[in-house]
Design brief:
76 residues; alpha+beta; two-stranded antiparallel ribbon; 1 helix; 2 strands
């Protein structure tokens, strides 16, 4: 199952904000996010009300998305 954990890159090291449960060893992908302010929704072609609607609609599938049996869709 894919898991996302926020952290901070500092002095060549990554400090996680929380320790992932049930993960002893795993491959990782690190994405560096910009430090500056909020996401520019307009640059992504949506406004605040559309973003709020999208968050509301995606919340309904979040529990199903995180179920262990959904891992089958992550396999090559």
């Amino acid at each position: 199952m894919l898991r996302t954990v926020e952290g901070i890159y500092r002095d060549g090291r990554i400090e996680l904000s929380e320790m992932p449960m049930d993960v002893k060893e795993a491959r990782v992908i690190v994405t560096f996010l910009p430090r500056d302010g909020p996401i520019d929704l307009r640059a992504r072609g949506i406004d605040e009300s559309q973003a709020a609607d999208l968050r509301r609609r995606l919340r309904t599938i979040a529990e199903d998305w995180d179920r262990p049996e959904m891992d089958v869709y992550n396999e090559p």
